[in-house]
Amino acid sequence: MTSKPRNRHLRKIDAALLSAKIVKDGVEIVPVLAPLKGAVGIVITILETVRTITTNKEDWATLGRRLSMQIQSMQDKLSRCPIPHSTQLLLAVNSYEQKLQNVLTRVRLASGCGLPKRFLHHQTDKEDIMELNLEIVDYLTDFMRDISIQTHETVDQIKGDVNKAKDGVERVEISVDAIGDNSHI
Length: 185
Prior knowledge:
Blueprint: H1 8-29, H2 36-80, H3 87-111, H4 115-120, H5 122-182
Helix pairs in contact: 1-2, 2-3, 2-5, 3-5
């Protein structure tokens, strides 16, 4: 019970766990109740497993919602962006979106499993959720790097275009000056 329970079901499980642990401590003190110690231990193990399964289920759902919102937000922002998109930018966005979609598919597959499978995987689910969160962070880092590179390349291209335009304007000014100098002939 390291964190505050997120829902009523978990609070009930935590209350039952606390009660079972109190009973277990009481059974250890009173020798006549010693045979109950094993039964109470089994109840505690079952309650802890149910708590872990419930927490994992919520964590899978939270991860799925977060991914869905992130994908939708990115699509919305990209569709409303007034700046024309370069091919490289679109490739980076599409690659990132595809990676997020793949993770979302894996989350849906994992979270959609029935109770028997959740029971069998309740210990590894927490690790899997953490690994997927880290994978998402890695994908975001790669995406931001790609966008940064693309932005620098675009800025450099714009600077080059501006310098070419300035050179053209200076040549036109020189030509106008030359025409103006020749007009007295």
